[in-house]
Amino acid sequence: MPTGQARAAWRRLLAVGERAWDGLRNLTTSSPARFAVLVFASLILVFTALLSLPAATYGERLPLADALFMAVSTICVTGLATVDVATTFTPLGLVIIFIGVNIGGMGVLTLASILGLIISKRLGLRAKLIAASDTNPLRSHGGPVNEGQAVRLGEVGQLLRTVALSTLVIEAAVAIALWPALVLAGIGPLEALWEAPFYAAMAFTNTGFTPNVGGLEPFADDYILLTILMIAVFLGSIGFPVIYALWKNVWHVKAWSLHTKLTLITTSVLFVAGAAAFLTLEYDNPGTFGSMDAWDTTFQAFFLSAMTRSGGFSVVDIGELNGSSLVVGSMLMFVGGGSASTAGGIKVTTLAVLALAVWSEAKGRQSVEVFGRRIPSDVQRVALSVVAWGATIVALSTITIAQITKAPVDEVLFDVISAFGTVGLSTGLTAELPDSAVYVQAVTIFMGRIGTVTLAAAVAASSRSQLYSLPVERPIVG
C-alpha cells in the first residue's frame, strides 16, 4: 500500500477510535446506570473466558454454561455454584475467583463511577449524583431530601477512596485474624496463608465460596473461626456508606444519618429474629440442630441467620432444613443487606421505609416520620417499586425453573431467591440444574446484583418533565 494511502487509513482508524472513546465518555456522564450494567456485563464475559482456560480447572475445561454461571456468581459476589469449587478449580482458578469477587464487591455504581472517572477524567454532576445515590439510592430522586441523609457531592471522591481502602483494610484484618484460627483447626501454616485471605474476601464480599473440600463442615465446632466470619459478613452487609459514616462519627450516634440508623437497627432486628425463628423451627430436626446441645444449637441458629442475610456460608445441610425454615430463610434472603453493600436483596432500608409507611398509615399520620426526620413520598414510591420489581423477577424465575426441572417448588423458590439476593445458599438444586435452567439462574443473579433501581434507570430512555397534572380520581383499594 502506498505511503499516502496508509496514512489516510491510519487517520480514519484514529478518527473511529476517537469517536468510540468520546461515545464512551458521554455514556459515563449521561447515563452512569447504563454504564454500570455495561461494566458488569463486560466483566462477566472476561471472567467467563478466564475460567474457561484449561489451566483454571483440573481435567477438562469447564463447559460454557458452567463457566458463564461461575463468572456471574463470582462478579456478582453470589457464591452459588454448579460445580464443586474446591475440587474443580486449580490454584490459578481460585486466584481468578478471588480477584473477581473483590472487583464485584466494590459495587455496581461505585465501580462504574471509578471507571467513569478514569475515562472522562472527571465526574460530571449527574455522575456525582448517581455516585452519591450509591451512598443513599434515594438521593438522586426528586423531592426534599435532607443533606444529612446523603454524602455531599464534594465528598464523592472521598467515598470512593473509602470503598477501596476499607475493602483492603478489613479483608487484611480478617485474614490476619483467620490465619491462627485455621492453623489451630488443622490447616497447614503455608496453606493457611492462602486460605485466610481467600476466606476473608469471601466473607467480606458476602460470597461464600470455600477453597477446601467439605466447605465449613470441618470447622463446625470452631466458634472462633465462625465468629470471625460472621463479623466480616456483617461489615460487608451493612454497606460502604454506613462504614463511611461510622468511621467519621463512630461514637457520636446523634451525628449518624437516618440511613445509617435504619440500616443498623433493621439489620440487628432481622439477625435476632431470624436466629429465634431457626432455633424454634429446627431444634428437634435430626438433620440439622437435633443432635446438638443447647449452646451449639443457639450459636448455629445465629450463624445461619447471619448467612441467610447474604453471607452464603453454611455448616448444616440446607437441604435438610424443614420447609418452614426454608420459608424463613427465603424471607431473610429476599431482604438482604444494606444499600451500596456487598449484600444483595431489596435492602434493609427498603424494608424499613415500607414498615414505617404502613405504621404511619395505620396511625392515620399524614407523613412518615422517624428519628425527628420526615421520609418524603418519592422515597416510599421507590421502595415499593424495588419490592415489586424484585418479587416479579423472583416469581418469573421460579416459574420458569420449576417448569424446566419439575423440582419441588419450595426448593426452587429458595435457590431462586438465593440467586436474586446474591446469597449463595442452596438446597442442592443449583448444582443439578440443566443448562437451560442454569442460564435462567444466571440472569436472576445478574438482575439481583445490579439492583432493580439501577436496572430501571438503565433501561429508561429518558426522564421527562410533566408541566401539567391530570384530574384526581380515587379508585377503591383493598
TrEMBL record:
InterPro entries named in the record: Cat_transpt (IPR003445)
The UniProt keywords, alphabetically, are:
Cell membrane, Ion transport, Membrane, Transmembrane, Transmembrane helix, Transport
> What Pfam families does this protein's entry cite?
TrkH
Locate the transmembrane regions by residue number.
Answer: 35-55, 67-86, 92-119, 162-187, 223-246, 258-279, 331-359, 379-400, 437-461
Task: Specify the superkingdom.
Answer: Bacteria
Q: How does it sit in the membrane?
A: Multi-pass membrane protein
Kindly indicate whether the keyword Glycoprotein belongs to this entry: no
| Compartments where found | Cell membrane
Has the keyword Transmembrane been applied to this entry? yes
Protein name, UniProt field: Potassium transporter TrkG
